[in-house]
Amino acid sequence: MKVKASLLCFAIASVLATAQAAAPTSKQSSAEAAAARRAAAIARANVLVNNNPGAVHRAKADVFAVSDVIVDANGTEHVRYERTFEGLPMIGGDFVVHSRDAKLDGFSQMLKTSARPGLAARIGGDEAIVEAGAVFPVKFSEAPTSRKVVYARNSAPLLAHEVVFHGMKADQTPTEMHYIVDATSGKIIDQWDGIHTAKPGSGSSCTSPTAATGTGKTFMAGDVVLGTSKCGTSYQMVDVSRGGGATHNMAMKTSGMGTVFTGSTNVWGNNLLSNSQTVGADAHYGVATTWDYFKTVHGRNGIANDGEGAVSRVHYGRNYQNAFWSDACFCMTFGDGDNGASIYPLVVIDVAGHEMSHGVTSRSAALVYSKESGGLNEATSDIFGAMVEFYANNASDPADYVIGEELFPNNASMRNAIRWMFKPSLDGASPDCYSPTLGNLDVHYSSGVANHFYYLLAEGAVVPSGFGAGTWANLTPASLVCNGNTSLAGIGRDAAGKIWYRALTVYMTSSTNYAAARTATINASTDLFGATSAQTNAVKAAWSAVSVN
Description:
Low-confidence stretches: 1-24
CATH class of the largest domain: Mainly Alpha
Shape: globular
Number of domains: 4
CATH topology of the largest domain: Neutral Protease, domain 2
Radius of gyration: 24 Å
Number of strands: 23
Largest sheet: 9 strands, mixed
CATH superfamily of the largest domain: Neutral Protease Domain 2
Strand content: 15-25%
Structural class: alpha+beta
Number of helices: 12
Distance between the termini: 46 Å
Helix content: 25-40%
């Protein structure tokens, strides 16, 4: 009776919310109007969920919470839900409702059953911590935590403990390892790191800053325009025009948030690594350009689509040769490399775009950083990192489908890079073609297949030109595809980027695998260009060309 009552309340609340969220009046502000439209979309989606419990594999004790809402220009609504069962988070239970004019178009989800596990755990939380601690590779920096969850990522739901350990790796990368421990057997059945890296392996005191326009004399990108702020007689590397995004100097520390860059003039750096502001200007420029790309091309207003900027931390650690996104601090962090002995500071624009895109993923599909979904997470950052580089159109860093090539000295032939999207296997570890064991690889390597797909979708089976890669790697069109389809034609970067963004934000969920990514991108292309369009046919052909059928 209690369950029936809760379902009835859910339906009544939805109807009332719909009535209250009627068309906005002329007196409402744009923010109020947007909030009203969001509330109306949620109310309509709640009714559709309530009327279709079987379609979302709803169990009696399931409870849903909205995490995101997207409304297309034609009025189609996409409402994303998280799920709990008996108050326990269900990892892999998220889904998206698609509708128009209150009529259901379908659901995007990976869960396939309404069966739920019993909640009597044979293994307790403390025991789960011990099991996870036995494999945590470094000394933990704070007390580990454990919580009961229902684990449903591409498997029948089971009771588990999510154990989280924090520590510092030998290379100074912080680690936030999540271990899923089966509450019956005590076995670790999944794991991922909450810190998302580019490679394997204190704020402002100003209360009322005004927007200013400065000059960044960067190391990587030359002289560029920076969005900054003025506070009294001094300037700060705080971009008021982009949500207050700020760049902080960590001064080689690995804890805390550092201090915001300040100066008596609005010129930052001198194009040399000897000036600490130079690298800060590089990061500030890269993040601002990424913000502009997402807003101009995809209509996204910042990482979380709420207009709020994030913090970028530079000069992290000593000779730290990586960069990472952390959802916990809503920040991007960049190491100095070894200051050019073998690798420059990791603030090149495609790396900045890569890390900020991890934040976009975390605030949309939230692809878990493990197995195939983790590879898709990494690929998303590579894809948008490359697209930001094209968007920047900066002669100091010509755009290409190679990630991080500017980080390496004397690298005109691009023999050194983090990843090569057109031929992932050039790194010696990433497969070009899909296989059922792909999810066993590090996510930086399993990302290669999606990177490869994206290149083929945008450019076709065409050997890249302009930087010698075709010569030194002896590449041919046949070497770029897995199925011999050398006639594969590309649809262009603009169309390919819009398809991937829509697939990520509208159709992918936290557990999306490669097969589901194929479906998501086909759905996205169908929405944008039509089911029988050249673009949608190209999506299908490009996935087949990397053996995702």
